[in-house]
Specification:
The protein has 99 residues and is mainly alpha-helical. 88% of the residues lie in helices and 0% in strands. The protein contains four helices and no strands. The two termini are 19 Å apart.
């Protein structure tokens, strides 16, 4: 079975978590999506780039989620979510691309 690239998993977790929370009006459900995708991405990061890189990328994932909230007050919710998801995907790709 082919692997899903970790940048796609991370970006999908951020966008999907927000989408689920917004459309179901159940924030905890969006949090579950965010956490599951983050866990899958962290496993991939560890396998591809090692534990230190996985820890750093996991921290970046959490920071992207947290950072989307104040950014949303300036640019709107969806633009903020897409911005942090894109930044997270780019960061994940930069760290894991050569491995």
């Amino acid at each position: 079975m082919p692997r899903i690239p970790s940048p796609a998993i991370a970006a999908t977790g951020l966008v999907g978590g927000y989408a689920v929370a917004r459309w179901t009006k159940k924030r905890p459900l969006g949090g579950v999506v965010l956490a599951v995708a983050g866990g899958v991405a962290a496993r991939e990061w560890r396998q591809v780039a090692g534990g230190k890189a996985a820890a750093g990328l996991t921290g970046a994932y959490v920071a992207a989620f947290a950072g989307s909230h104040p950014l949303a007050k300036k640019v709107g919710a969806w633009p903020a979510v897409f911005s942090v998801a894109g930044a997270m995907a780019a960061t994940s790709w930069a760290v894991t691309r050569k491995r």
